[in-house]
Design brief:
Radius of gyration: 19 Å
Protein name: TetR/AcrR family transcriptional regulator
Organism: Streptomyces achmelvichensis
Shape: elongated
Number of helices: 10
Distance between the termini: 65 Å
Structural class: mainly alpha
Strand content: under 5%
Largest sheet: none
Number of strands: 0
C-alpha cells in the first residue's frame, strides 16, 4: 500500500520529535545538533528545517508535547478520586513527582525556561498544568472546601510554589520532603470541618 505525501510528512515530523525528545532529555538542549537528529531518523537536515525551522523550533515542539503530557498526567492522577480535596492533592503530587522524570526534568524544568524564555515557558504552563489547578481550586471554593476567594491569585501562588519546588527536585531535591511540605501547605487552605 502506497503512503501519501501527507502521511510521509507526518511520519517524518513525528520521527524528528521522538528523536529530538530523546536527545534533549539525555543530552540537554545545548548539546543537541539538529543535523544529527535528522541523520538519526534517516532524513536530510533540510527536511528537519522544513518541519521545524531550527533546533529551537524542534525544541519548542518537544516542550509543548512534554507540557501537554504533564498536564494530562496531573489530570489523570486527580481523576482517580471522587473527592475534590483528594483530587487537588493527587494532581499536585503528580506535578511534583514529574520532576523526577528525566524528560520532564531536563526538557521542561531545566532547559525550557532559559531556551524559550520565562514568558513563553510560563504561557505553556498556564495553558496546561495551571489551567487544571485553577479549575480544581474553583471547584473547591464552590464546594466550600476552601475559603471563597479570588482563584487567580491563589492559582498563581500555588503554581509558582510548585514550579519552584519541581525545579528544586529536578536539581536533586528530595521528592518525599517536597510532598510533605506540599501536604502541610495545602492543609492550610482547607476550611475547618
Amino acid at each position: 500500500m502506497a503512503v501519501s505525501r501527507a502521511e510521509q510528512r507526518a511520519f517524518t515530523r513525528q520521527a524528528l520529535l521522538v528523536e529530538g525528545r530523546r536527545r534533549f532529555a539525555a543530552d540537554g538542549y545545548h548539546h543537541v545538533v539538529l543535523a544529527e537528529v535528522a541523520q538519526a531518523v534517516g532524513v536530510t537536515k533540510g527536511a528537519a528545517y522544513h518541519h521545524f525551522d531550527s533546533k529551537a523550533g524542534l525544541f519548542r515542539a518537544v516542550v509543548a508535547e512534554v507540557q501537554q503530557e504533564l498536564g494530562e498526567r496531573v489530570a489523570t492522577a486527580a481523576e482517580q478520586y471522587d473527592d475534590l480535596w483528594e483530587q487537588l492533592r493527587a494532581g499536585c503530587r503528580a506535578f511534583l513527582g514529574a520532576g523526577t522524570d528525566p524528560a520532564v526534568r531536563q526538557i521542561l524544568l531545566l532547559d525550557a525556561p532559559t531556551v524559550l524564555g520565562w514568558d513563553e515557558w510560563r504561557a505553556l504552563d498556564e495553558a496546561s498544568s495551571a489551567r487544571h489547578l485553577s479549575e480544581a481550586l474553583q471547584a473547591l471554593a464552590a464546594a466550600g472546601i476552601i475559603a471563597d476567594q479570588p482563584v487567580e491569585p491563589l492559582t498563581r501562588l500555588l503554581s509558582g510554589a510548585m514550579n519552584e519546588t519541581a525545579h528544586w527536585i529536578a536539581r536533586g531535591g528530595d521528592p518525599h520532603a517536597a510532598e510533605q511540605a506540599l501536604d502541610r501547605l495545602l492543609t492550610g487552605l482547607h476550611t475547618p470541618g
